[in-house]
Every structure is written in C-alpha cells, then in structure tokens.
Amino acid sequence: MSEKTYKPGNYPDLPPPPGTVGVYGWIRQNLFSSISNSLLTIISVVLLYYLIDGIIGWFFLDAVFDAESKIACRKIDDGACWAVITRRVGQFVYGFYPEAERWRIDITFLTMFLAFAPLLYPDIPKRKWLLYFSAFYPFFAFVLIMGGYFGLQKIEYSLFGGFMLTIILGVCGIVCSLPLGILLALGRQSNLTVVRTLSVCFIEFMRGVPLITLLFVASSMLNYFLPPGTNFSILVRVIIMFTFFSAAYIAEVIRGGIQAIPKGQYEAADALGMNYWQKTRFITLPQALKISIPGIVNTFIGLYKDTTLVVVIGLLDPLGIGRAALADTKWNGLSTETYLFVALFFFVSCFAMSRYSLWLENKLNTDKK
Amino acid sequence: MVVNKNKSSKPVIEIREMHKWFGNFHVLKNISLGVNQGERIVICGPSGSGKSTLIRCINRLEVHQKGDIIVNNVELTGDLKNLETIRSDVGMVFQSFNLFPHLTVLENCTLAPIWVKKLPKKEAEELAMELLTRVKIPEQALKYPGQLSGGQQQRVAIARSLCMQPKIMLFDEPTSALDPEMIKEVLDTMIELAETGMTMLVVTHEMGFAKKVADSVIFMDEGEIIEQNDPKNFFNNPKNDRTKLFLSQILNH
C-alpha cells in the first residue's frame, strides 16, 4: 500500500481502518478477537439456546393458564400452572377489598400517575395545574380508598392486601421519607447543638434497629407511647415506621451528597450575601440531591421490597396472599409459580424506579448538555 | 497606566491593628490598612503570606480575632445581624471561580439579585445580560458553567459579582487557575472594571496588571504588611530586602 504524503495543513480527515468500527467491528473485537474467545462465544450461544428453549417451554409453550386445580393443570400439560394466579388474580391485586368496590382502587391507582407526573417530569406541559392536583391527591386517594365520606362505603384496613397494600405502603413511605430525610440530613449538619444531637440520635437509633423490631413495636407497643385517646390504625402505624426507618437511611445518603459539595460553593454563596435558607434551597440541596440520586433510589427500592415484612404482623402483602393460595388444597405445591409472579411484580416496579433514576441523573448532568 | 479619576479620600475599608489566628498559628499580624473609595490595591507576596486570608476577612469569610475591620462604615463583629447586607455590597471573585454548576450562566448571575436584593426577575435578567455583555460573553448566557473555558468561567464569576452592584470588589488570585492564553481576557475585563472607578483589592502575581492599574501595591510576608507603595516606586525602588528578593524571584524570567 502506498501512503500518500500531504503538505502541513492539508491533511484530510481519513476514515478509520476497516473492521474497527460499526457492527462488524464490534462483533470482531468483542466476540471473535481470538481463537479461544471465538470458541467461548460459540459454546455460550449453544448453552443460551438450550436455556432459553427450556425457559420459554416452561413459562409459555407448555404452561397452563386456566384450570380448576393443580391436578387439572398437570392433566393438560407439564409446564407452569399459571391457573393459581389467573384464578386468584383479584386477591393478588386487591387483597380482600370488596369486589364491588375495587373500581375505587383502580381509579386511585391510575390517577396516581397523573399526580406524580408533574413531580417526576419537570418539563411536562401544564405542570402548574397538575401540581395543584398533586397537592390535592393525598386527600382524594385517602377518601377513595378508605371510604366513609360522600356515600362511599367504609372499608376496613384489615381487608387491604396484595399489590395494593404494597403500593400504598411503598408510595406513602417513599413520599414521606424523602422530606423527613432531607430535614434530618440538614439537622445533622446544623450549627445548633440541640437540633444536631436530636437528628444524630434519631438517625442512629433508626439505623441501629432491625425493621422487623420496629414493625412489632408498631403493631403492639406504639399506642403506649402516644398520648391516650389517640388510636392510629395499624396501617398508619406501619407507614410511620417505614417512613422513619428509610428517612434515617436517606438522611445519611443526602449527608454524603452535602459533604461532596466543594467548600467554594458555600463561600461563593456567602460572598453574594445569601442567608442559610437561601444557600440550602438554591445551592446545597439541588447539588446534594443530584449527587445522592443513586443512593436515594437505592433506599427507596429497599423500602419498597421491605414492605413484604408486614406479613409478620399479620398484614396480607402479596407474599401473604401467595401463602394463602398455597395453603389451599387445590393449589398445594405451586410455590414456584406463585413466588415467581410476586417476584415479577416487584421486579417491574423496582426496575421502573431504577430506570427513572438513570434518566434523572442524565437530565441533571449539566456538563455534557 | 489607567488614570484613576474616581479616587477620593473617603475611606470605604478601614482595618486597624487586626490579628488573626488559625488555631495557634498567627496568620495575620497587626494589619492596618485604609482603602479609599475608587482606590485599586494590589496585594502580592509569597504563598502562605496571608494575603488571601486578609481579603477574605473583609467580607468575613474568615473571622478576625483582634483589632477592627470597618467596611462601609459598619464594623465587622460577631453579633452582626446584617452580615448578608454587608456581603452583598462586597463582591468577591475566587481563584477557582466557584460558579454554581447546576445553574446556567444567566441563573448564576440572577440568583442573588433576585433573592438577596429582591430585584424583579425581569430586571435582574436585564442587568445580568448587560454585565455579561460587558465581560463579552452574552452568547453563553444559557449554557452551564461546565461547558465554558476557564477564562469564560472567571468572566462569568466577575459578572455574577457585579450583578449585586457592589461598592467594593475583592479578587483572590483570579488568574492563578487559568491557562496562559486565558489570563489576558480576564485581566482585560478587570482593567475595564478598574476604568469604571470600582474600588478593587486584588491578590495577584500579575505584576503587569499591578503596574498598569494599581494605585498602591502591598507586599505581604509571614502575615505582615512589609511594604506599601505606589507601583512606580514599589517596582523600581523597593525598600525592604524581602520585597527585593520577592520581586527578583517573580520578575527575573
């Protein structure tokens, strides 16, 4: 090959050598870069084929989606027996919420997206109006779910269960623990000794105690600590405990974010004459929260999955409903299907949170925009 | 030499026998200094001589333990209620710019005017654009600091300080973190600012800037003001041996 020579300043941009870019280049570099790598690639593809073949067969092709019982399932085909889910899907979603009133849960759930949209997506059109709805939403949801007003039938807490219970606990815990966590993080950094000491004690206590202990306290002892006459329902008590528990973790995550902000930022804000609250609102928190997004979402996901622990105090979360289904002689022994289904629900929720946090991180990254 | 027309004999900063310690370390020793309105003072000295600490005491980013500092007729003491008001009259430009990375250039400039000075948003934006034009980067207003070069960032930082319409500007080694080709654009901005009659205290090693702009040059070493003179005498006829040594070290290459 003859190399052309160019005068200084006349060298054109040449294309990269063939086989180093594009799909072909990627495959060559990553899958077939040497003989042993090529062998590994081929073996992996064969293994994947058998694995996926088996999985698809069990999950879909050989599966039974509706039948009277496990025995009926087995008579039809030998894959998964999803009938345990399809026959009891109402319970998995709503617990023992009366069937005639389930539309209330559906509406609450669907409008929840409308309420969250302006909070999660700052660029949404008509954000200001939607924010009014977001502020009003908690009351709306409370009335609709609990009933007892406007002619809606009052529903007992004890009937709540399934995914609905998980979402209520998870969403309430998440929404309440973020502001509380922020306050605790600020409190821990405060110059006021009393505020700092109280914050440190609260955080260290909540982090130092297993969540299950707190749930037992909520179910049995909390009423002793509260002034006489107050009687929160078990659901509210559990939400309070979840909130406190995850707020302590979030406070520490945010403290990490606050400490990662260079000192110069505060000096610049000081030099401009900003006071503590202005600095906190405009300089500290926007930057600290941005840094802490992965940690905060991590805590949220943890909290969300920990809601399954309420089963130990007798609330029927999806695992409790699953257990009830398995205790039924018709469905005895279908634990794989049941737990996979519950796992799928949790995975979808948590994966969505994780994706959202990635999106938000990218959006807030001001260096490359 | 930039002729200073605005210089008056009205003192805006008065420092009397001021001392400061970092723990047991006596960092500023018996500093006395008066700065008149419109005066431009350059402070130089070897690193660790306390020159940055001195100007940081003037807007109370550092707290002095002994002596008096009076800025705009207000004495800086511990029980000061309106520290924010005094600070908003004293602009400061830092070595490492300290722009707010999560805000656009324009938001950096309007944040404090809107919230500290309670300027209406539109007015603050007009003022910011005017000052960004003065530092010659109005076209960057909607970008984020991370997308600008060092020299541009420092000019934004100057504009941000000026948006508070301060009476005094403090510069803490404004060009030390910059690449050589960007130093000039920042110094030019500062020279233009000097021409408007701003009271300026500048910690810098840019002796060309000192010769051109300063009314008075201060040499500090080991926490003391060793020598203070007008630039001509300071550079041509330094009296103290330490000043001579320092000047020979920074001018001889």
Helices and strands, with pairings:
The complex is a heterodimer of chains A (369) and B (253).
Chain A: H1 22-30, H2 35-61, H3 70-76, H4 83-86, H5 89-94, H6 102-120, H7 127-146, H8 162-188, H9 193-208, H10 211-225, H11 234-259, H12 263-271, H13 276-306, H14 318-327, H15 335-364
Chain B: E1 11-22, E2 25-36, E3 40-44, H1 51-58, E4 66-71, E5 74-75, H2 83-89, E6 90-93, H3 105-115, H4 121-134, H5 150-162, E7 168-172, H6 180-195, E8 199-203, H7 207-213, E9 216-221, E10 224-229, H8 231-236, H9 241-251
Helix percentage of chain A: 55-70%
What's the overall geometry of chain B? Answer: globular
Instruction: Just name the CATH architecture of the largest domain in chain A.
Output: Orthogonal Bundle
As for the number of domains of chain A, it is 2
Structural class of chain A: mainly alpha
Q: List the quaternary state of the chains.
A: heterodimer
Radius of gyration of chain B: 18 Å
Q: Describe it for me?
A:
The complex is a heterodimer of chains A (369) and B (253). Chain A has helices at 22-30, 35-61, 70-76, 83-86, 89-94, 102-120, 127-146, 162-188, 193-208, 211-225, 234-259, 263-271, 276-306, 318-327, 335-364. Chain A has 369 residues and is mainly α. With 253 residues, chain B is of the alpha/beta class. Chain B is built from 9 helices and 10 strands. Chain B has helices spanning 51-58, 83-89, 105-115, 121-134, 150-162, 180-195, 207-213, 231-236, 241-251; strands at 11-22, 25-36, 40-44, 66-71, 74-75, 90-93, 168-172, 199-203, 216-221, 224-229. In chain B, helix 3 crosses helix 4, helix 4 (121-134) crosses helix 5 and helix 5 runs parallel beside helix 6. The two termini of chain B are 23 Å apart.
